[in-house]
Design goal:
uronate isomerase, domain 2, chain A, 46% helix, 2 domains, alpha/beta, TIM Barrel, homotrimer, 4-stranded parallel β-sheet, 3-stranded parallel β-sheet, 516 residues, 7% strand
Chain lengths: 516, 516, 516
């Protein structure tokens, strides 16, 4: 149980600065973001890094892959309260609290088994604030500080003593019209944001967005995972859904593929630029058609071994690559995470509640069949992500450094952090260069953290480039140009629309020469 | 063979400073520890690091896991000579000398095959000093310099020319009463030190210590490895020993478990807080009871396959976790080392003579059964160690960052070093935070090196925290508080006594808010 | 297709400085190497690093392992043109261009299938210059800038606008007599350079070199790979070649071994100091002789499984170690690369065209049989290389830190880079020290890049040592001595001639105490 917290402070104007707290001042940490935060130490490097960062900080944000729901923008309603905005849906936050014994139910994480969970957002917020010290040194702290100070314009840090005050301040801020999702798209300078949608999505929210003139700014991403892992619970039902929405008979394997192809077309029409694939491994080995048909048939009958299911998933990954060559959707692979490590948590709370743990990743052998078939196809674009840093220099950089279809995605998940981003550049650049990376991809469901994440990426890239400048390995002029490419031009190119062809994607001879 | 060394220098007062060496001065390196040693370079960071370090350097030492023998304190006799104190028993030192061709026998390492080894400590010391340059850049050098300068108060560095002088100086120092083990406990500011004892230990030395009033200061750790690896030579004999000391019939598997349980109780009564488990892998998969019984029966009959033995070891690891939930002993796992890589060295010198080489470690899948069963049990505490750095960010930090029972131990063995400690914080903190680590664990058998190791850990943590401060990711006030937690409060909590319950261990809502 | 390039600039004297370009000046980057390049940032460290580097920069170059052809020195002809000197043969350069869609054929890479490739060196050079920005942050850029500025004495950076000018300037320079290979040996201060030669080489070029007085300066290395992988295409033909050149009947396994032994003798007579082995894994497990004979017999008949071929390769690696104990040739192992990942590129262009991708490496178990048999043999010397950085601290440093026969080679291939070299020292030194490493090994086929590579290694080592000095972990005097050992004395020792015996190799008691 958390320590007893003080009650509300009624005499305090919640939107006033914390200096108004008088006697409490000594325990209330002032929150001020330093302009040099996350830039490297050392006068020489920092001065250069500061100049490079200044040149990119104002560039528009391209959010080419993430998990904010389309409905958020289609509905454009205000956010309900601090807890349900910043704590409950953020698995980084709830897992850290869990790690020190705060039960997920006490944090309001909804259960799938019908048991009760905390419903009072203020209680949830207090529990979060009581454990604020746990986040020291973590990116969650970095995002949350940025959200509170920069986005919500409040200069008080969370903590046991500020929980209620901060709750009230945030709640008041969220009621302002400028804090509706669409308004924030402008505030955040977001040029484009991509949602992630199941293959069976009706894309209705995106249709509403298109009708409201947001069709080019909020686009879908095709995610077929729920259909490709044939031994996951409820698969048959989802295949029936696929048949319904596509109007294609999924009774056999060929129909299943045709239905997937048809959904991809619908996504392309709705503005999609990419697909997304979460698999346990990167295996992408095609099966003989007869074998694929047999496994599909058996899966429909409900009896397929784990081995067959894994082989079929790898086969479908290969087929998806083939489809990408046809329809131009950029393929994103996020492998190497063992989902739902704790069975009881999974049963009680459902998937992805913080107990997803990485395993060793392997790309060299796993991707070989796919890259042999499509790796030099000018219409194929593959963006690779990992949470296993040992593959950066060993496998990913060498692969991206030779196959023209491959770009390396930004540091993913646990690695989306200051030091994680720095290590990525250090381990990848010398073999793959800068121009075989995708530029920054935020991959978050925490909408309010998006500016913080892009801003941090620009700071870390500025710091890395500044080191190259100070070590006389790159001119400052080139560093400034490269920084802008990483922040803006490369994601634009890497996810160029399906119709843009090879040139739009920066292939063969197309110069990436900065924004100027 | 080492180069010829000069004889004794009779006219020289060994306790005098080396400046008295006159003409030899140019070849005798003065040994002076710089107050800023191991703090990061750069004026800005170093200034902050210095302040943080100042705030922790005087804190008492908690040595929650190590390998100094209880007899050392029970007997409280003076150390015999420099070689048998600093060279012969230190496998880091003997392995480095071995690596450049100095035979272990020439270093006085005792043989188990009865062959002769060097017995003259001065000769051993000379061989060590002749190769002092080999230790450049290694932690052994760091410890040894600290031991000589800070503990022994001698300002001469080892080297071919100082061997005899230094030998005499150290020998003279060791004869002083202040250099007896119990006196050094005070000198070193050691509040508590834990030994490591086989499950079959009589704990007589600990009884003698308790009688002398040292029972709470020197405590045992329960190490059952010699009993859990059923195909290791001499296993049956050790099981008979277990039966004798426990008074429980070990004739079958259930008796064996009961005997282990009984020994754990005896350890708890003697003050133990933890168990320790060295396994080739972290596998902790329970067997069906009938299968466990069968393997045990076959092992008693002397015929068990390597596979069955490994499965049984993994099963017992799981059972030990279950017992920890009952008796509250903290469970420590040290996996991933292939012991006794060189068969001939093993045959001649016995185990652990420097030829132990790490292999790839895997935790995500290996620990899943154990964590599913006990990972959220408030009475279970698991501390994980590794010598495979690739698992820090990939597996260990995500596991410790969500399972409330898990803490990450300090960098172990080869990684117990300045850069090793720094990388640990860099790779772990962003996902697991600071408060899911155990704080510093020295894990050494070199008693005189203990202050050096704790001091270095405080310096490296100060340096890491100072970087966060200078990069404006943490306030200096928080950094100072965190540094004290890492140095003192976290090990205290992580290894809280069995009776302390969840609160003493810092679980659910218990604040860790610094020492102040 | 590359962007349109401007034509020649006829009025421009190609050997004049680029400041003569007048109006073009703003787009033509001046190329000036900064004296502090690649030294660490920070005034304190850099000042120390500069002094350490100054002490080693003038030492002679020992190129103990590389891939420059003996014929280059035997023929001593001038280099034909910039493209065929700096682009076409450098797989680092062609792979990066390939990764952004420039076909290998457009870069003049010769095809083995008879199809046409670009033959105009100026066109190739233009394509390379048009993509110069791709090399930002890569070691290729570092080498190329050094080659252009320091070796060719031209102060213009490559780029779309300078392609033709630079081509003409380089072409003019290459025509000068001082740019013949033998002259460059002097210019580069190369004391010794080792080529790599198939076991079936006639060594004719080396004989010509010996006749010309270059026998001790350009020496061969014995590479038997083409004979040890029995299921590689054309193996039988190469075995017949072996029989011819050795005069030993290779009809059975024993004859095959005898023929290999005979070739090793021929290499030793020609001055060879080492062998080189590129295997997919480091497995070195001996087979029962009958089994080895059986596989060899089946291989001669053309029908051997992949498993049997792999087992035979591991067996031969073990046998080669045994032969090294006899003839004293230093054994080098370069494992862990999956060659020719793209089948179509392999079929069209042959082996090693940039599509070689690393896989996980494993040394602890793989080398155990070899190290058990020969690891403490005073006549055996094994130098290990890797492209999997995760084994540095986990396996390689512990192995080299105890087995007297083992030295760790310099960072290899993709890791032969500024940050790669730095990480090597950081990850290896604390366990293995400096004196269990081989010193710098350039391993390049780009002759003109050799001074740049050695110079960079000296800079990075100076930077690493300077950090130890500034962190008060090493005295500057020791750092200077160690730097010279790393640059010169250690490679000299690690590859001491077969006849030099243990002493020459720095074993047992032989001091490495700097050059002074």
């Amino acid at each position: 149980m958390p320590p007893p917290l003080e009650g509300d402070r009624p005499g305090c104007n919640p939107l006033q600065s914390c200096s108004a707290l008088g006697a409490k001042e000594s325990r209330v940490a002032q929150l001020r973001l330093h302009p040099d935060r996350a830039l490297p130490a050392g006068d020489d490097i920092r001065a250069v890094a500061r100049r490079i960062y200044q040149s990119t900080k104002g560039l528009p944000l391209l959010c080419m892959h993430g998990h904010v729901e389309a409905a958020v923008f289609a509905d454009d309603e205000g956010f309900s309260d601090p807890a349900h905005l910043l704590v409950v849906p953020d698995h980084y936050v709830t897992r850290m609290l869990m790690s020190q014994g705060v039960p997920l139910a006490d944090l309001g994480v909804p259960r799938v088994d019908g048991e009760a969970v905390e419903t009072d957002p203020r209680q949830i917020w207090r529990r979060f604030c009581a454990h604020w010290h746990l986040f020291r040194g973590t990116p969650s702290r970095y995002w949350l500080e940025h959200e509170i100070a920069e986005v919500l314009k409040i200069d008080i840090a969370p903590g046991p003593d500020t929980a209620d005050l901060l709750y009230d301040l945030i709640q008041a801020r969220l009621a302002e019209p400028g804090f509706r999702p669409r308004a924030l798209l402008d505030t955040f300078n977001i040029e484009l944001i991509s949602t992630t949608d199941p293959a069976t999505s009706t894309l209705d929210d995106h249709a509403r967005l298109a009708a409201a003139g947001f069709g080019a700014r909020v686009i879908p991403t095709f995610r077929p995972d729920a259909l490709t892992h044939v031994n996951a619970g409820g698969w048959a039902g989802r295949v029936r859904q696929l048949q319904e929405i596509s109007g294609v008979d999924t009774g056999d394997y060929d129909g299943f593929l045709a239905a997937l192809r048809s959904r991809r077309e619908a996504f392309v029409l709705a503005g999609a630029r990419a697909t997304d694939h979460g698999h346990l491994t990167a295996a992408a080995e095609p099966l003989p058609p007869a074998e694929a048909r047999r496994i599909y048939r058996e899966a429909c009958q409900g009896g397929v071994s784990a081995e067959a299911a894994a082989a079929f998933a790898g086969h479908l990954l290969f087929e998806m690559a083939r489809m990408s060559c046809d329809d131009g959707l950029v393929m994103q692979i996020h492998p190497g995470v063992l989902r739902d490590h704790d069975d009881a948590i999974h049963a009680a709370f459902g998937s992805d509640r913080g107990f997803d743990i990485p395993v060793t990743a392997e790309f060299t052998r796993a991707l070989r069949p796919m890259l042999n078939a499509f790796g030099r196809d000018p219409n194929f674009r593959l963006v690779l992500f990992t949470v296993d840093e040992s593959v950066y220099s060993r496998e990913l950089a060498p692969i991206a450094g030779v196959y023209p279809s491959v770009r390396l995605g930004a540091p993913w998940w646990f690695l989306d952090s200051p030091d994680g981003m720095r290590r990525f550049r250090e381990l990848v650049t010398e073999t793959a260069g800068f121009y075989n990376t995708s530029g920054f991809v935020d991959d978050t469901r925490a909408f309010l953290s998006i500016p913080a994440r892009h801003d941090l990426a620009r700071r870390i890239d500025a710091g890395y480039l500044a080191r190259l400048v100070v070590e006389h390995r790159l001119s400052e002029e080139e560093a400034v140009e490269t920084a802008a490419d990483l922040a803006y031009r490369l994601p634009q190119q890497a996810y160029a629309p399906a119709g843009a062809g090879a040139a739009g994607r920066g292939d063969a001879g197309t110069e990436v020469s900065g924004l100027g």
